[in-house]
Every structure is written in structure tokens, then in C-alpha cells.
Amino acid sequence: HVTGVQTCALPIWITFDRGLTNEPSLSADGKRMVYSSDRAAGGVATIWVHEMGDGSNRMISRGDAHGTNPAISADGKWVVYRSERAGGGVYVLPAEGGEETLVAADGRDPTFSPDGKRIVTGSHDGTARIWDAINGTEIFCFKEHWCAVSSVAFAPDGRRILSGGEDGNGLIWEMETGRVLLTLKGHGSWV
After folding, report:
1. Which of 94, 102, 136 is nearest to 118 (CA)?
2. The pTM is what?
3. 111: exposed, middle or buried (Cβ count in 10 Å: 0-12, 13-18, 19+)
4. Is the CB of residue 106 less than 8 Å from the CB of residue 89?
5. What is the per-residue pLDDT across 107-163, written as a single tens digit (0 to 9) for each?
6. Separation of alpha carbons 23 and 107, rounded Å
7. What would the pLDDT profile of 72-90 be if each residue is shown by its tens digit?
8. Distance CA 43, CA 121 (A)
9. What strands lie across the sheet with 118-123, from one edge to the other?
10. Band of the pLDDT at 22, cuts 50, 70, 90?
11. What band does 189 get if pLDDT is binned at 50, 70 and 90?
12. What is the 3-state secondary structure (H, E, C) of the chain?
């Protein structure tokens, strides 16, 4: 006698690498995933795109320096990531591969806005910055942290940004004005 049915998602193996594979980011339509892996570059982490439909994987970053913190735009067409190349910075490139564009020198933890038109980055100088995703123009700079900004994210509506800093604070910003809406204090370590 069955009184109920429980279901759960089974893991799907994306890669069988022996090395490091981490930091996955899935496109909103679920068709592409981007991740960091040291599978092909002799211990250097590079950025890969996995096509969920046919299971193919391809390296899209250059492989001459560590690539971390990849994120994919909601439409699956663009990838942004942190590279340690030339002192470090955030690069954007097509998910199909191609020309990389430096968006933010010293930027870290990049992510796209829900509409894919903006990128937000943290930085060692205590700022969180908004960039135009196509041409790399800085749109706004938030300067309320007194230590490095270690994590950033857009709210689902794209109107607010969360930044976490090594000062132990989390801040919620209004994107258009830069006004701090909420400060989350009391963390014993970086956020």
C-alpha cells in the first residue's frame, strides 16, 4: 500500500575531471552552464561552457592565468569572470568563445543583472561598481565599505544590489541612486 510518493532530483554528472571543477552558474533557460576547471591548462583554472542538451564542454578563456568566479547572462549568450592575468581583473566574452574584453581592473566576484545589461563587481578598494556589460563603461561606484568587497549580487528585479565586505557588513543598495537601504552588521568575519 503506497500512501505518498516522494521525489528528489538526482545529480547529473557534468564533467568527470580528476582536477578542480567548481563555481557553476546556470543560464536562466537551463541550456548552458559555465564553470571553472583546471582540466586542460596544467593546473591553471580556466573557464568552460557546458551545453546541457548535448553534454559538450568547451574552454572559452585563454588559459594563461587562473580564471574564477564565472557567471553567465540570463540569455546564456555572455560570460563574465575574474582572471588573474596582468594583475587581475574582470573579463566578459561571448559564451560561444571569442574576444575577451577587460571590464574592471581589480574587480572580483562579477555577476550579471537579470536583464544582462549590467555587471556588478566587488573590489579590493572597498567599492562595488556597476558596469555596462557590452562596452565596459563604469555606470556607478558604491563606496560605503571600508574594506575589500568580497561578494556582490543583483536582486531578482535588478533594482537593488547586495554587497558583502571584509569589514563584516552586508549592504543592500538602490541601484539607480546608490542609496543604502539596509546595513546588515554584526558578522564576525567577512561577508
Report:
1. 136
2. 0.83
3. buried
4. yes
5. 889 999 999 999 999 988 888 999 998 888 999 998 888 788 888 999 999 999 999
6. 17
7. 999 999 999 999 888 889 9
8. 26
9. 107-112, 118-123, 128-132, 138-142
10. confident
11. low
12. CCCCCCCCCCCCCCCCCCCCEEEEEECCCCCEEEEEECCCCCCCCEEEEEECCCCCEEECCCCCCCEEEEEECCCCCEEEEEECHHHCEEEEEECCCCCCEEEEECEEEEEECCCCCEEEEEECCCCEEEEECCCCCEEEEECCCCCCEEEEEECCCCCEEEEEECCCCEEEEECCCCCEEEEECCCCCCC
Average pLDDT, the chain: 84
Say how far apart CA 40 and CA 59 lie, in whole Å: 8
Q: Which amino acid is at 177?
A: T
> In this predicted structure, what is the pLDDT of residue 17?
60
For residue 179 the three cell numbers come to 542609496
- The cell for 135 is 562596452
